[in-house]
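--- STAGE predict ---
source: upstream dedup step, 1 unique chain passed
mode: sequence only
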Amino acid sequence: MKKIKQISFLLLLLFTCYMLSTSLKEANRFMVHFIDVGQGDAILLQYKNANVLIDTGIEAEYSQLYRYLHKKSVKKIGTLIVTHPDSDHMGAADYVMRDFSVKRIYMTTYKSKTKEYKEMLRAIKKYKVERINVKEGSTIPVGSLKSMVLSANAKAEKSNDSSIVLLLQHGENKFLFASDAPAKVESKIKEKYDIDVDVLKVAHHGSKSSSPIAYLKEVSPEYSIISVGIDNKYGHPVSSVLKRLNKYGKHTLRTDLNGTIVMASDGNEIACRCEIED
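--- STAGE serialize ---
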């Protein structure tokens, strides 16, 4: 019975994503690709001729990211944003800088002792990538659009607490990219900013440490996107978060069930489609 319920749930999600699909005008279109890189984050933002990549996923899954970017004819990434130095968010950063002519990298001054972090720092020097350190209140351009940093605590005790959280507005449409921000960070953001958005990248892969009720009530997203790996060892996303997302949001989509999730905004409407690899 459990397997039947799981299959039915998967079909419902796929049908939902299909039904949401529509065509928007090419002019002034902003694209967001929540790329399926397993248990990690990699989000491609495209506006006109600008390509911005938020995180890269783990090194072991880089082939998936590389293949997807090439399928979308991405040859250069003007801006790479590393939200925090955990391997599931920046493990492949050195490869991205090697293969996609990255011009600049936005990050915080939060430091890590991991091998992946050291490899990223070496790649920044080797490929002469301009490093720009951000803090709360900074802006990061996406072409002529601007994303605002709502949180970026370089003095945090834990890596997740240092996560860069971004708010981007395109016309009437708003997107919130919450990285791995824990509940205490999300609560602070809720108190300081207007976070009623259309699209939420759910924090920390749907972990129980994030997405508190009061925060989700404020966000009230049309679409909640969870980047997560199939049958991951962490049990992400947890059922309590899924229940809250279903209560305070409208549509919840997951990369483990839906594959790569692509959204297009013309500034008024948002269209969605799912791309599952064969």
